[in-house]
Design brief:
The strands form three sheets. This protein has a four-stranded antiparallel sheet. The protein has a three-stranded antiparallel sheet with strand order 4-7-6. The protein contains eight helices and nine strands. The longest helix is centred in the last third of the chain and has 22 residues, at 173-194. The radius of gyration is 17 Å and the shape is globular. 34% of the residues lie in helices and 21% in strands. It has one domain (6-107, 118-210). The mean pLDDT is 89. It is of the alpha+beta class. A hairpin with a 2-residue loop joins β1 and β2 (39-45).
Length: 218
């Protein structure tokens, strides 16, 4: 019988996730994780799996084939510009990640980049290096690929379902708004470098994005 880490033992683990290998700490190893010298390095994305996941429509997390609805696990800033650097997953897999991933459930946790192996790959596009403290599961029926100089990005289609999480549970409106407000200065700085049109476009995106935060988040 598989021995899971006490931090996730209490969670309702999807059968798809239970079929994944488990690391020495007792955490399931997502399909996108790169294995190096026989061990999974959660900081490193398997570039080959990125290609397979996109073109075979497979779940980024468990590896099984996706259905009509696809769930993106994103940060609040991605809800503003509707662009993400990772492919979609099953909704149940995305929910488990939002409740189990140490980086997503611990707002003060930072990415460990010490001795990052050469196999490490930077996400496509421009990466905002911070822990937003809040995670959004964005479910949609479609998305568009955006080719960049260092990979591909995903432009999210209109959402059919939105779920906000913080610390492994549903987020409060205050937590969501705090994360958005602290992340916006970075997006504004990037837009200002591109000029007035980019700033105007961002202002429109912010207005639309804020409408996605329901008053009743609790």
């Amino acid at each position: 019988m598989t021995s899971y880490n006490p931090a996730i033992n209490r969670l309702d683990m999807p059968q798809r996730v239970m079929r994944l290998p488990v690391d020495e700490r007792g955490f399931p190893v997502p399909r996108f994780v790169k294995w190096i010298d026989g061990k999974p390095d959660f900081r490193v994305i398997d570039g080959a799996w990125m290609t397979v996941a996109v073109y075979q429509r497979r779940c980024w997390l468990c590896g099984d084939v996706l259905g009509r609805h696809m769930a993106f696990v994103i940060g609040p800033m991605c809800a503003i510009n509707r662009v993400n650097s990772e492919p979609p997953s099953h909704l149940e897999c995305a929910r488990f990640a939002a409740k189990a991933c140490p980086f997503l459930t611990q707002p003060n946790r930072k990415r460990n980049e010490h001795d990052l192996p050469e196999e490490g790959e930077e996400p496509a596009g421009v990466h905002i290096d911070r822990n937003p403290g809040v995670t959004l599961i964005w479910v949609t029926k479609d998305y568009q690929l955006i080719k960049t100089s260092n990979g591909v990005l995903f432009r999210l289609g209109d959402p059919t379902l939105l779920e906000w999480y913080a610390r492994g549970r549903f987020a409060t409106r205050e937590e969501v708004m705090s994360s958005i407000e602290t992340g916006l200065p970075t997006l504004r700085d990037m837009a200002e470098l591109e000029g007035r049109e980019a700033v105007a476009a961002l202002d429109k995106q912010i207005k639309v994005g804020l409408e996605l935060v329901p008053v009743g988040v609790s």
